[in-house]
Amino acid sequence: xxxxxxxxxxxxxxxxxxxxVILVTGAGDGIGRAAALAYAKYGATVLLLGRTxxxxxxxxxxxxxxGGAQPALLPLNLAHAKPDDYLSIxxxxxxxxxxxDGILHNAAMLGPLTSLQxxxxxxxxxxMHVNLRAPFxxxxxxxxxxxxxxxxxxxxxxxxxxxxxxxxxxxxxxxKQGVEGLSRLFADELAGNSNIRFNCLNPGATRTRMRASAFxxxxxxxxxxxxxxxxxxxxxxxxxxxxxxxQSLDVPRGDWT
Length: 257
Ligand code: NDP
Description:
alpha/beta, Rossmann fold, 8 helices, single chain, binds NADPH dihydro-nicotinamide-adenine-dinucleotide phosphate
């Protein structure tokens, strides 16, 4: 389901995310980096989770330069994360900021684009771990904090292959199908007894490193940048989307050129 076209020009109130604490995974690059900067710009304290510390530090510095609230760094390689790592994130958030009002599950790996006949099972596990198990386990670990929020939003990042599988997209496609189910299951199970909304968001083709590696012959200038699609990410994270839950939404397509 496409979000309304007017979200292309959605103007979030400057204090949309004031006093909110939001965790972004894969915050060092691509869409996650843009979302971390946008959330900070609109008032949130942003928790930056990712595997490359230097990239997270660069985003941290940018947020400070733009006058945002001091972020926190949560370096973690989700491919190797153990239950204790997720609990340690919970403890760190409790200690440093004491609350949580949103998670953007954005980190993902593409893995090889190859047939199931030849797909390496070890790589399959790694892709599933980063793209599906991590969003499940991180959400599960952080539910105690999210339930205390008056208005929390959890966004899972999906993809067109999460709705309809496509040949050669292997574990990436299956992980995104799983993410769609995961989001709906959290929404169903917690409907009525929490203030948390759970939705999937498909950014659509966006000018990032992952897109370039999936479509090396595509002209990136024809694609929206991560900044272009931020209105949808702001809308779903902030109070204007209160009551929207259990949905799988698409960033509206516009003329980006
Ligand atoms: P990028 O490859 O540009 O960024 C992915 C981010 O995830 C990076 O910050 C990366 O960290 C992080 N990441 C990858 N593996 C791990 C790991 N093991 N542990 C922690 N962090 C990790 O991708 P995009 O910005 O394009 O993608 C963002 C999301 O959007 C993904 O969920 C993707 O599936 C989805 N999407 C993207 C589309 C597009 O056209 N770009 C289309 C449809 C969906 P590092 O920088 O350190 O490698």
